[in-house]
Every structure is written in C-alpha cells, then in structure tokens.
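Section 3.1: Structural characterization of target chains.
Under the original work plan, the team committed to producing a structural model for every single-chain target entering the pipeline before any wet-lab resources were allocated. The record below documents one such target. The sequence was received from the expression subgroup and is listed exactly as submitted; it comprises 346 residues.
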Amino acid sequence: MAHTLYDFMRWEHMINVGVVGYGTIGKRVADAVILQEDMKLVGVTGRTYNYRLEIAASRGIDIYSIETPSQLKDQGIKVKGNLKDLLKKADIIVDCSPKPCGKENIDKYYKPAGVKAILQGGEKNDAAELSFVAQCNYRDAINKDYVRVVSCNTTGMCRTLHALDKAFGVKKARATLIRRGGDPHAVTRGPINAIVPSFELPSHHGPDVRTVLYDMEVFTTAVIVPTTMMHMHNMSVVLKKQPSVKEVVELFKKTPRVRVIKANHKLGSTAEVIELARDLGYKRGDMMDICVWEEGIGLYDGELFFPQAVHQESDVIPENIDAIRAMMGFKDQEKSIMLTNISLGI
C-alpha cells in the first residue's frame, strides 16, 4: 500500500478550517485547504449572492451567511447557518474579507467564540499578533491566536530578501514596485492609459517587509501601470558578502517558492509567465512562486540587481496554509512548507 508523507505525521485530529470571504483570495484558500490531508474545510461565508457561491455550493462546500441569509436563499443557495454557526465548527478561520473587516471580525466574532483567525495583508500590522511569511518567521507564529499573512508584494520581497540575508547578509535593500492596476476581473479599477506614481516615501511595502524581516533596512517606491497580470519588482540589494552571479542564481534555484526563469526561453514578460502557469496545469493559471529572471541578475559596484514577478492573486495562498499549521501548534517549519508545496504542486 502506497504511503503519503502524512502517514509519517501524527495528528490528534483534523484541523477544521472556515473561510470568511469567498473572493479572489478566499476561494483559493478554500481550494488549498481541501487539498490538505490534515485539514477539513467546514464552510465558507457569503454576504451577497454571486456566481462564486453558486460554484462552491455545486462542489458540496457548506455556505454560511454573514448576516441575513435571505438574499442567498432567494437565489437558491442552501445556507447552513450564519457565521456564529460556522465558528462552532471551526478551529481556525481564514478571514479573506475586505479591509478593515478582518480586524473588526476579531472583536465582534472570533474572540467571543474563542476561535483563532488569520487575516490578510490589507489589514494593518497591529490588527494581529504577528505578520507572517512561512520561510521567514514560521516559528514565531506557533500557537498564536491572530496572525496576518502579509500582502502579495510583501510576501514576494520577503521570500527573496530572506534567502539573500541567510546566505550573504543584507546591508540594505531598495525596490521599485511596478504594480498591476487591478485584478483581471476588476473592470472598474486601474489606470487605462497612464502610469500612476505613488507619492508615499517610502511606499507602504517597505515598512511592511520590516514587520516580517524585523531588522532589515528596506526602502520602496511604487508606480501603478495598466496591466492585470502580475506585479514586477526591480530589486537592488547591498550585501555583506559579495557573491558571484552564479551563486545568486543557484541560491534562488534552491529557495522554496522562488522560481528562476529565463527570458530566452520565451519567458520575457509577465504575460508569458502566466502562460507558463497555465501550460503547467496550475489551477486558474496561478503562479504561486516568485519568478526571478536569470538574465536580470547582475552585480554592479558591489550591488545586486534583479527583477522579480509576483502573481498578486495567488502567491499568499501557501502562506495561509502554513500559518494554519503553525497556529495550531505544528512546529516543523520545513515539513509544513514541503507538505504545502507538494499538495499545491509548487
């Protein structure tokens, strides 16, 4: 009989997970939870009817209402109960509702019910006990009650900067974030024929990185461009030890959730990276890895430069799964990351 990695792990019981908010992140988190052999998705919530809830119901996912269920029932959605009913079944909630609802829900729902909760990067850092990226500070999240998985951009910078810091030491990092105007479905967002600069110095992303990489000097600027595919970061890093370009390439190749790609392999743009994800068979064409272009990795006057692409819809999904395990007391960071990666095909 074939064994899975889970056969060699001891769980007292399945982790019962509820998802609050079933949008861009929530639906992906729910799908990821379903793939975990140590977790059970006990339900998702909806506030108003939309096609996503129809699909969830057709897949046998239990639907709970945030407030009055009539709006959902009128559309033929079978509602199992309200959020308080879901909390009775859940060990932990992944809150994917729009900011600042997550923070509000802690005081209104989760604390009174004694249920742990994970918030998303749109919330302020002080909304939770800890900001989280699995490779950087998994152990700090063990047994915590409220954890915030940071934004897609912060997650992307943390993954590569943490790897560089461990291998060579980071004196300081600078980044220009070239941000997508909106997600593909967000037809009312984003510039149409413009590049919109951020006049916030630094942009909020740099201080956010420091909520995870606590002592690192990071400064960021940002612009918004008319694309929906991915974000791109132009990174500039001063290191304590001077590696060769080859050493940096090899480091990124062996870093979990970082993928080294080559422009001369017909991967010279974010559109082609998304096409790669589709051709690899990733659900929804998601690219959960941070993609670093090998040809763009270079050293000049002791400073390391590289561009990286960040898929804003999906790179935080594995972080949510690892945060669930850490908060529920699973202490093995490397094994959790490995199990998540295998289950999601990363």
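The chain has two domains: 5-150+316-344, 152-310.
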